[in-house]
Amino acid sequence: MFPKYDVIVVGAGHAGCEAAVAAANMGSKVLLATMNMNTIAQMSCNPAMGGVAKGQIVREVDALGGYSGIVTDHSMIQFRMLNLSKGPAMWSPRAQSDRMEFAAKWRQMLEAHPNIDFWQEMVRGLIVKDGVCKGVLTGIGLEIESDSVVLTNGTFLNGLIHIGEKQFGGGRAGEKAATGITEQLVELGFESGRMKTGTPPRVDGRSLDWDKMETQPGDENPSKFSFTDTPELTKQIPCHIAFTSTEVHEVLKTGFDRSPMFNGRIRGLGPRYCPSIEDKIERFADKDRHQLFVEPEGRNTCEIYVNGFSSSLPEDVQYKALRKIVGFENAKMFRPGYAIEYDFFPPTQLDISLETRLVKNLFFAGQINGTTGYEEAACQGLMAGINAHMAVNELEPFILKRSDAYIGVLIDDLVNKGTKEPYRMFTSRAEYRILLRQDNADQRLTPLASAIGMQGMEQRLEKVKEKEQALIDIEKLFKKTSVEPAKLNPFLATVGSKALDQKQKAINLINRPKVGIQDVMANCEALEVALAPYSIDVLHSAETKIKYAGYIEKEQEMVDKMNRLESVKLHADFDYHKLPSLSAEAKEKLSTQKPRTIGQASRISGVSPSDISVLLVHVGR
Question: Fewer CB in a 10 Å sphere around the end CB: N or C, the chain?
Answer without folding.
Answer: N
